[in-house]
Amino acid sequence: MKFTSLRNKRVLVTGAAAGIGYATALAFARRGAQLFITDIDEQRLFEARKAIEELGVPCFSQTADVSKQPSMQAFADRVHDEGGAIDILVNNAGIGYLGPFIGSPIESWHRTLAVNVMGVVHGCHYFLPRMIEAGGCRRVVNVASLAAIAPAPNMSAYAATKSAVLGFSDVLSMELKLAGSSVGVTTICPGVINTDIANSRANVSAAVSDAQLTKLQSYYRKNGATAELVADAIVDAVLNGKAIVLVGPFARLMYHTKRLSRRLVEKLMLAEAKKLGYS
Predict the structure, then answer these.
(1) Residue 113 in contact with residue 106, Cβ under 8 Å?
(2) Which member of 211, 227, 244, 253 has the greatest number of CB atoms within 10 A?
(3) pTM for this one?
(4) How far apart are CA 126 and CA 62, in angstroms?
């Protein structure tokens, strides 16, 4: 089902204090939606709420950790108390992790899985049942990555989590259709996007040198698309009921190339990794 308008629709965005989440919240607000936003960064979340309210639409904000079940349950309770079921759920919150499998601590896997996979699971667990019960045109948007389709060296943990999001979304979509629900599912697979996710040493293995990280950050600044491009694609996908969205540099190209030749995609990704200093 498609939305004819987003005005007064209740839109929830996780990880809304920065990057794609922030841009997405603003994109929906500009179309008259009512926003519900969350993030772990209290100060930036407050600033995001102010920016949304300056557009003349209501915004409810509350800090929450998507990786923690009690935190998301408490957030969902507050949101539902504010007026019932959500119309559009955008499970965006995520973290990056860069590092070779051999050379990355097991804790990096636990943290990346907890945020990128369980964050999406918690969002759906606590909001989707009320959406189904309410009926009508509603949509779940799960943000995956091109890394789910064409991963690169140093991305084992990140690619694994985003592949999980893609697979989960496919199964969820089928189950909702079998149940006769009018709730649709969209998976977003951004390509190279210049956001904070690629600009922090905190989520990088010690096995990755400073020189290699600097090269990668420079690459993202030079070639990465903006978060606003992804946000506009998310809004378009909701309005048009799209199942999968490939947005940003290389996303569509790599998706279709892999359908033709997995070996070619591997060759391209290995060559690119070497350019960026992988050894």
Answers:
(1) no
(2) 227
(3) 0.95
(4) 15
From the list 52, 15, 56, the residue with the least C-alpha distance to 35 is 52
Tokens representing 41 are 């960064």
Of the candidates 264, 270, 240, 252, which has an alpha carbon nearest to the alpha carbon of residue 190?
252
Task: Decide: residue 274, CB within 10 A, 0-12 exposed, 13-18 middle, 19+ buried.
Answer: exposed
Q: How far apart are CA 112 and CA 67, in angstroms?
A: 9
Q: Which of 112, 237, 201, 202 is nearest to 163 (CA)?
A: 112
For 246, the token pair is 């490939």
Tokens representing residue 77 in the block: 């309770």
Position 151: which residue type?
A: P
Active site residues: 158
176-221 pLDDT per residue, tens: 999 999 999 999 999 988 877 656 677 888 888 888 888 888 888 8
